[in-house]
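Tutorial, part two.
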Amino acid sequence: MGSSNSPLKGRRLLFLRESAALRRAAWACQQLGADTVTAPVMDLRDPGPEDYRALNRAIDRLAHYYDWVVLTSQEGVERFVTQCEIRSQKPIGDHPQFAVVGRQTETALRRHGIRVSLAPLSDFSQQGLIDALGKLPKLSGERFLLPLADQARSLLEHFLAQHGAVVERLVLYRTVFLSLDPKAARHLADGAIDGIFYTSPSSVQAFCQNLGPNLYRRFQDAPAFSIGDQTSRVLANHAVTSIMQAPTASIPALVEVAVSFFGTRSPGP
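Running the prediction step on this input gives:
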C-alpha cells in the first residue's frame, strides 16, 4: 500500500470510548496505516430502580400526556425504545412527536420506524436543537419528556422551562468514569500518542480526572480531534494546544479530520 493510500501510516491514535461506531472508526484508521489504541475512560450503566420506575410511569402515559419526546444520543434512542417495547409490548405510535439533536440520532429512531418531527439543520448540538425549537409556533404549555444521561447538560431543559413548557427529565443511563489503561498511559507518557479522539465533553472530563502533571501536559500537547463545539470548548478550557473539530458531529467525520490533518504532515522519526 503506497503512502498516498496510507495517510495515517506511522501514527498511533487513541480512542477513549468503546462502541460499535468507534470500532468501525478504529478499523478505518488501521486500514489507512494507523496503530490504534482503545482505552475507555467512561462506561455507560443502567440507572437505579427509582429511575426505572419513573421511566415506566412516563411510558405508561406516553401517547396521551406528552406532546414531545427529545432524544440527544443513539444510546438514548436504543435504551428508550427498548424500554418502551418491554413496558407496552407494542410499537411507539404517531404521538407524541420526537425531536432529536442530530442526524445519527434521527437515523437510529428511523430504524425503529419512528418519525422525527424536529431536528437541527446544521448545528447538531443542544444549542442547535434549541434554535430549532425556538421556531415552533408554541412552546408554552407543551409537555416535553427528556430521557437523558445523568450527566447530560441542562441547557435544553432550562430553555424549555423559560418558555413556559412543562418539562420532565428522566435518567436513562449513568456515566461512570474509569481510570486510564496502563498501556495507554505509558504511550502517552512516552509521547507516543499522535492524536486523541474526543466524542463528548464528558470524554474529556473522564480522561483528565486522574492524569498526573506529566500526563496532563502530554494530553494538552497531543492533537485533539473533537466531535463538536461543546467538546472543543472543554478542550480549550484545559489549554489543549491543537484542536481539530469535525465539520459535522459524527464519528466518520472525525476520521476524515484526522486523515486531513496527518495527510499533510510527515511522521516523526
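The CA atoms of residues 58 and 226 lie 34 Å apart. In part three we will examine how such features are distributed along the chain.
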